[in-house]
Write a structure and sequence with these properties.
Length: 280
């Protein structure tokens, strides 16, 4: 129960702030992957190692079961990472992947300080726990069967890309992997292929006390849009903002002009986008 207690409390806070039954249903559905994964990524482990000298970079997809195991490790180790979403139909970050590794399989982790690029889930987990933990990869993170189940429970959410406007500066998301409310935000970020800085703040994180002192609340998730000078709390407010600001459609988007990859309809983008593969 201790494993789920703080996560359940965070979900309850978001539930009480939900204004409609539809919002409450979405939160309930987003809880299922956390249950399937038995709370992996629900709290920060105590035996953490040194911190990276430079921020890690992760190419991943929210609905990818192998990417999920890496995100869980980041939450457990309390590690920030620059997230580069690679949804199906991706053009923006798929091109970066090809230039980086020569193919388009995910997940891929870049550790700039150590000068390494890792393109295998098991290799990524081993690297993270060897250098930033205590060497041992927890058993729960080795299980890909329940991670695949968690993906099926979300019924394709966070998998397929949608046309969007690229932010001029990377967004910043504070939350953690097992949080249902954070999951809803990550799915929207990934579908819109919006890069963001992930700041995990799972229960037992040593940064929680400082966060409360600075923000005056423990409400999560928190999204900061540095370019707009806006900070938002809660899945509903954040997802609505992302859709209004960055989703591209007939009633929103850039001024009329020559289209670029940010504004081309997804059907056209998908026809020429490389096929993204998931890697164990």
């Amino acid at each position: 129960m201790e494993l789920f207690g703080s996560t359940a409390l965070d979900a309850l806070v978001e539930w009480t702030r939900a204004r409609t039954n539809d919002e409450r249903l979405r939160l309930a559905e987003a809880t299922l992957p956390t249950l399937a994964r038995l709370g992996a990524g629900a709290r920060t482990i105590r035996d953490r190692g040194p911190r990276p000298a430079e921020t890690l970079i992760l190419y991943q997809r929210e609905g990818c079961p192998f990417s999920r195991r890496v995100r869980e490790a980041l939450a457990m180790l309390d590690l920030d990472a620059r997230i580069k979403p690679v949804p199906r139909g991706s053009v923006r970050h798929a091109r970066e992947l090809i230039a980086l590794t020569g193919d388009i399989e995910i997940p891929v982790l870049v550790d700039p300080a150590m000068g390494v690029v890792l393109a295998s889930t098991d290799a990524i987990l081993a690297h993270l726990f060897q250098h930033y933990g205590r060497g041992h990869v927890p058993l729960r993170l080795r299980d890909h069967v329940t991670s695949k189940l968690a993906t099926k429970l979300r019924q394709g959410r966070g998998q397929d890309g949608r046309p969007s406007i690229a932010p001029s500066r990377a967004l910043e998301l504070t939350g953690y992997e097992a949080s249902p409310a954070s999951r809803l935000v990550r799915e929207t970020l990934d579908e819109l292929e919006l890069p963001y800085l992930s700041r995990p703040l799972a229960p037992h994180s040593p940064r929680r006390r400082a966060y409360f002192a600075e923000e005056g609340t423990m409400e999560l998730p928190r999204l900061e849009d540095p370019a707009a000078g806006i900070t938002l709390y809660g899945a509903s407010a954040i997802c609505s903002y992302l859709e209004r600001t960055y989703a591209f459609g007939p009633d929103r988007g850039l001024d009329a002009g020559v289209p670029d990859e940010r504004t081309v309809p997804m059907t056209a983008r998908a026809r020429r986008a490389p096929q993204i593969e998931e890697r164990r």
